[in-house]
Amino acid sequence: MARSGRDPVRVRSAQPRDLGEVIAIDAGITGMRKPEYWGEILQRYGSGRRRQRFFLVAEDASRVEGFAIGEVRDWEYGMPPCGWVFAIGVRPDARLEGIGTRLLEAICQGFRRLGVTQVRTILARDNPLILSFFRSQGMMAAPFIALEKDLEP
Ligand SMILES: CC(C)(COP(=O)(O)OP(=O)(O)OC[C@H]1O[C@@H](n2cnc3c(N)ncnc32)[C@H](O)[C@@H]1OP(=O)(O)O)[C@@H](O)C(=O)NCCC(=O)NCCS
Asked: Which residue range(s) make up the domain with 89?
């Protein structure tokens, strides 16, 4: 749904001044404040530091409303370069206004500019919200499976 009756939203690269708000949005989603992690993400992905990496925020006149992070990965598992989205989050009171869609579109636009023709993500099976969102964006089950195991100490 388009955002109506509220400030317009602009999507841009994340800057150091955004970090506090991004940390708070993420803490609201995951239940954990992770300032060190986010500082490192900003170092690695922020402000267009590397062409293939994207750390975007959506802001209106008063605050950061959401963020998205992704990158192009080359020949991972022998597959052609592909865009990966590995985090997206929108403030609870700003959801269902099209901000997540804007963020994903912006990141996909960055991937397209690099000549990439496919975007992927991975998500928890028990998170129907994020699944509904990605499905609404036309993303479908990929022909891969994720495997994991616990490592002995
Ligand atoms: C997923 C998320 C980013 C969506 O952001 P958003 O700004 O609300 O998304 P949009 O307004 O662009 O919604 C686009 C579509 O997604 C789907 N969608 C979004 N929220 C939904 C919900 N609560 N229930 C069902 N479908 C939903 C709808 O199809 C929606 O289109 P519609 O409004 O025309 O029905 C946001 O809900 C969020 O931050 N959730 C928590 C994220 C999370 O769990 N992250 C952990 C893994 S990184």
From this structure: 10-136
